[in-house]
Specification:
Layout lengths: L1 H27 L14 E5 L4 H12 L3 E6 L2 H15 L4 E5 L5 H14 L5 E4 L18 H23 L3 E6 L24 H22 L5 E7 L13 H15 L3 H4 L1 H8 L10 E3 L2 E2 L10 H14 L10
Parallel strand pairs: 1-2, 1-4, 2-3, 4-5, 5-6, 6-7
Antiparallel strand pairs: 7-8
Helix pairs in contact: 2-3, 4-5, 5-6, 6-10
The structure holds NADP nicotinamide-adenine-dinucleotide phosphate (NAP).
Length: 329
């Protein structure tokens, strides 16, 4: 009995040590942006900047002098983050605006406010995200909540702000996707909302992240020659709140366990966003997928299909009921 207990304990310690060693090596391989560029006189909007990677990117860009708009659903939490950023960077130009990307009404109200208040947008970071729910859950717009939060809301927001982004050119759109985009092998643009009943949490997260890249590719195509560049990225596995906020086994339990041991810090996780926002060398690159502060070919063939990107775009227009007056391309 005693020998069995000791063997089990030795096994658990070995597994933990191997995971921790992988995590150490993984973190060591993180590339930091080498750009020292100032962001003075630049306006940056970051969705989902009340926590995690978005919060860290907001801090870095504020330190570089940008006017940073924290676009967040939880105003109290975002106000605390704004206070923290102001007091630690000395930059007072950090604003909080309400945005719930899962609600089309909220996205439209946010966009209207930005268009009324701001003269320019130099960088739009579409970063807010959730890991999804174990059961298909609908928003008030009747959309599956992972797709609504991670893809449809950002699709609508970018479209609404496109006119100002073009007027502010050269400007940049940055879309936080994930390597999880490659977990799905097919994507049916008619089934983005899981109306056929075949719903699985991991599929929904993966599909939303695939849509992020397809959207970025198609938007980059549409905007060629305008001076607005669009790129997607994977921040890597990062120890953030995202895993604590969702249920389900793989994302809610497995990743919640692994992320603190194996994952990057939020500072490391934010590097590729910051790089895409500030880099002068990569300023003209558009329609690419970035990892570790450089273009990556670690991307599935599915999301490189321009025909599929166009179909997902057209389906998304219908899902968010995009009006002709909301189209700026
Ligand atoms: N962490 C990773 O390992 C990892 C890996 C690959 C990709 N990503 C991507 O990175 C992005 C940021 O995630 P994170 O890891 O930093 O997670 P996080 O710490 O949970 O931060 C997510 C942010 O998104 C916000 N958010 C969630 N739902 C929203 C909504 N409906 N409207 C507005 N804001 C909303 C959250 O607001 P609250 O504070 O109010 O919850 C929070 O500010 C996500 O797009 C995620 O898919 C993360």
């Amino acid at each position: 009995m005693w020998v069995t207990v000791m063997s089990v304990m030795a096994f658990v310690v070995s597994v933990f040590t191997v995971i921790a060693a992988f995590g150490f090596i993984y973190r060591q391989r993180t590339k930091f942006t080498t750009s020292m560029a100032s962001m003075k006189n630049k306006t940056v909007i970051i969705t989902g900047s009340s926590a995690g990677i978005g919060k860290e990117a907001a801090w870095d860009l504020a330190l570089r002098g940008a006017r940073v708009i924290l676009a967040c659903r939880n105003l109290k939490k975002a106000a605390d983050v704004a206070d923290f950023i102001k007091s630690t960077t000395g930059n007072k130009e950090v604003l909080v605006r309400h945005l719930d990307t899962s609600s089309q009404a909220s996205v439209r109200m946010f966009a209207d406010k930005i268009l009324a208040e701001e003269h320019r947008i130099d960088v739009l970071v579409l970063n807010a995200g959730i890991g999804g729910m174990s059961k298909r859950t609908l928003t008030t717009d009747g959309l599956e909540i992972t797709m609504a939060t991670n893809h449809f809301g950002h699709f609508l927001l970018a479209n609404r702000l496109l006119g100002l982004l073009k007027e502010s050119s050269p400007s940049r759109v940055i879309v936080t996707s994930s390597m999880a985009h490659s977990y799905i092998k097919t994507l049916d643009p008619r089934e983005l909302n899981y109306e056929n009943g075949k719903y699985w949490q991991m599929h929904a997260y993966s599909q939303s992240k695939a849509c992020n890249i397809l959207f970025a590719h198609h938007l980059a195509d549409i905007l060629k020659g305008t001076g607005v560049v669009v790129n997607a990225l994977c921040p890597g596995l990062v120890a953030t709140e995202i895993f604590k906020k969702c249920d389900g086994f793989i994302i809610g339990k497995l990743y919640r366990f692994l992320a603190p041991i194996m994952g990057k810090t939020t500072q490391q996780g934010a590097q590729t966003i910051v790089h895409l926002a500030v880099s002068k060398e990569d300023a003209a690159i558009t329609g690419k997928f970035f990892e570790n502060c450089k273009v990556s070919d670690n991307i599935s063939t599915l999301v490189c299909d321009a025909g599929l990107a166009k179909k997902v775009w057209e389906a998304s227009e219908a899902y968010v009921d995009l009006k002709p007056e909301e189209t700026f391309y």
